[in-house]
Amino acid sequence: MTNRPLDFLLIGAPRCGTTSLFHYLRNHPDLFVPAAKELPFFIDDELLARGWDAFFRDYFSAAAPQQRLGKLTPHYWDRPEVPPRLHAQMPAVRLLALLRNPVDRALSHYRFLVRRGVEPRSFEDAVVDEGWKKHQHYVPLGEYGRILDQYLGCFPREQLLVLFTDELEAAPERVLFTVQTHLGLNLPFPAKNLERRYNVGGTSTRLPWLVPLVRRSPLRRLWRALPARVQGALGKWYFFEIAPKREVPPELPADLRRRLVDHFRPHIVRLEQIVGRPTPWREFRE
């Protein structure tokens, strides 16, 4: 198949349900999405050096000529170098952004890293420590208006479709019809997996000692010897199926939530200007 640019790209945000959307999109017969979700071409120096032709041969050569080509890479979210690079090579690409209440997104991101054994602090310490702009990007990644303006500085507004996690969970058929229209598809999305949510996290981990133990033991060498695809599959199975405790999460302290809401409010105001309608998150309007 002849090399051609992407037709659409999901740019983020992380911990907003992008894996579920990835699986829904892969089911459409007129779309081709590589099986490997995280392939950040535009921020990987080695991939950029090899060029798009080589990347296309590696991941898109199996696509049929009539299929639209797409990628889902939340790694592009809040990477200011990506929009100009992307526009220079693919100016007509259609963009998708899937967004969640930014306070809840930050907390989900934090719990994910706790389960991975790389975040020892409390959530409050993690987001307050050295200010909002530091540490794991819990807060900056939720500054949606600022981040989308990076893309709108390079792409016309009509090429961007903003989706909300709340609506995808409540009415996936309706949201996917919007995606269908944005991408110019004639056939509707198959409904066979729309009831399933993928990569659902939890409040904590059942085995907090396991990952640190593997990192300190000879097992680490065995893990590194596994192919990257096997590591990815085993990691997802462990972190999203085996390890999570799915309990009712404790509420954030009211003062901390209020401070986060106040921080995010101007970014949500800008987001609503971009999408031309209110977000589902009423607390930012109260």
Task: Draw up the topology in text.
Layout: E1 8-12, H1 18-26, E2 31-32, H2 45-50, H3 52-59, E3 68-72, H4 82-89, E4 94-99, H5 102-115, H6 123-128, H7 144-152, E5 160-164, H8 165-170, H9 172-183, E6 204-205, H10 210-216, H11 219-225, H12 228-242, E7 244-245, H13 254-275
Parallel strand pairs: 1-3, 1-4, 2-3, 4-5
Antiparallel strand pairs: 6-7
Please characterize this protein's 3D structure.
- The chain is of the alpha/beta class and 286 residues long.
- The chain has helices spanning 18-26, 45-50, 52-59, 82-89, 102-115, 123-128, 144-152, 165-170, 172-183, 210-216, 219-225, 228-242, 254-275, and strands at 8-12, 31-32, 68-72, 94-99, 160-164, 204-205, 244-245.
- The strands form two sheets. It has a five-stranded parallel sheet with strand order 2-3-1-4-5. Strands 6-7 form a two-stranded antiparallel ribbon.
- The chain is globular.
- It starts with 7 loop residues before the first strand and ends in an 11-residue tail after the last helix.
Please state how the strands of the largest beta sheet are arranged side by side.
Answer: 2-3-1-4-5
Largest sheet: 5 strands, parallel
User: Which regions are unreliable across 5 or more consecutive residues at pLDDT < 50?
Assistant: none
Order of helices and strands: EHEHHEHEHHHEHHEHHHEH
Query: What is the terminal-to-terminal distance?
Result: 53 Å
CATH topology descriptor of the largest domain: Rossmann fold
Total beta strand runs: 7
Structural class determined from secondary elements: alpha/beta
Radius of gyration: 19 Å
Tally of separate domains: 2
